[in-house]
User: Fold this.
Amino acid sequence: MSVVVGIDLGGTGLRAGLVAPDGKMSSTRSFEHGGLRNPVDAIEAIVRAVEAVACGVKVDAVGIGVAAWVEKATGFVARAPNLGWVDVPFGELLERRLGVPVVVHNDLKAIAWGEYRFGAGVGADTLLVVFLGTGVGSAIVAGSTLWTGARGFGGEIGHVKSGPDDGPLCGCGRRGCLEAYVGGGALARRAAELRAKGRLKSITGAGDVTALDLERAAMHGDPDARVLLEQGGDLLGRSLGAVINVLNPDVLLLGGGVWFASQYVRDAVREGIDYASHPFLRKSVRIVESALGPTAGVAGAADLARRKVAAP
Amino acid sequence: MSVVVGIDLGGTGLRAGLVAPDGKMSSTRSFEHGGLRNPVDAIEAIVRAVEAVACGVKVDAVGIGVAAWVEKATGFVARAPNLGWVDVPFGELLERRLGVPVVVHNDLKAIAWGEYRFGAGVGADTLLVVFLGTGVGSAIVAGSTLWTGARGFGGEIGHVKSGPDDGPLCGCGRRGCLEAYVGGGALARRAAELRAKGRLKSITGAGDVTALDLERAAMHGDPDARVLLEQGGDLLGRSLGAVINVLNPDVLLLGGGVWFASQYVRDAVREGIDYASHPFLRKSVRIVESALGPTAGVAGAADLARRKVAAP
Assistant:
């Protein structure tokens, strides 16, 4: 039996685990890295994390999910806006440094695969997974295969244009992307703008405003907080409605910090889906929530790596 | 070598052909049926068409593309708004009547498969096909497989909600579907409404206004005609931009009567795509036009049937 480590490398944190074939983790580590803008630093952080969770056992393969546009098969990172990387042969560099087979996927692809294999997506024919974290990530599993599209960038709705040209700025450099409205980072930026204008007074403290801060403020009657959450949820829901029409999934799986933090977001997402999707397609899809939470990406990345080394 | 007939059954016309393995047609028939609202009439029309193109040769299989939501594998028509059918076991009925293996697909799936196998989609990794005819049809071929989704209804953008709740009525019964803005039927309905208000005066004649009528009127300076074409094209383009983001296709193939009739529509579609898709995904996709035109569906349906009888 192969010993496989899974890694979830996000824009601000890293999580690693030694993952059994059934998805269970016998050893895990997670830490905030505060932004690994140099890929070499990321590689060294991954090497240390692999050593830490392996506890001296020889590792046969490493699977990584990274918040990036990753080319299929090669593990080449074409763009990682949240890490600041452009054109990094990440898979190749890592494989050389670690000396074992390495599989690199977009983080949401690893998460979707984890939920499909071990979580709330088990048994789905056509699974659409959407995580509302710092950003808006999504991925598709259909017929037991991760959707990649032609280059590997398929499956993502975060950068669908949802607002006008003078809409909020997205981490990708454009304005009006869905992620610029409903990701946790976007909510924090938009809240900061409102606070600078003397609004959102019920939220105190100096740090970034979280979705949970906004949820509490909205519950206590702050209309600005409610509008931020509901507008973001509505835009996401309408985009999901359109995607449901096009993909005809049987399961839509939702998760991530913002999703679980805000009832206003959840209600608006569901209403947006009902509004935008055709009733005939809408009734074919079951909406479920993430079962694995923050460990889905680690489990999925490890399983994808295990398949690579097990393949004939 | 199997003798295979392909059929394209649309809302108003039927086209049949005896199709060789290379997609070439040695014998074809096409006629307007004026709306086969009884499936039994459709079956008899198909039987006659098969006999006509077979010219006495024994047929081994028949493939059909029909303007309908067709369940995968079974050929069960769940809904065919343009024909007025609901819950018709069409594949089963046809197979019993014809006495040979029958494969039924949605018409756009047959068209997309035809273009993928024999037309402008040959060699595509991830192909998105959109035909602007009476309605707006689309389908996806990825990794040499037609995208079906969980029940078989996937691949379609025509009923994505693109306008408000009081937007134009769609053939599916909802308001604001994309198809209610840019399909040929929708353009005719919207033009008729304007003419009833004394607008579009440059268009004379009593029949339905076509996309070509509108194109000519727009070219001669009629602002209403131009708005109809450009609004429809823009909404389609923006929806396609979103789908390009989600699917990461390498080829987008466009065709159909309205597409070829109107430069205003074509320009607006391209601008809408550029607006809504992320530049990073946009540059991965090549936009091409249908090579097979109205025979794509016949060729595709026949090839899908040939594969079924050839499969081990």
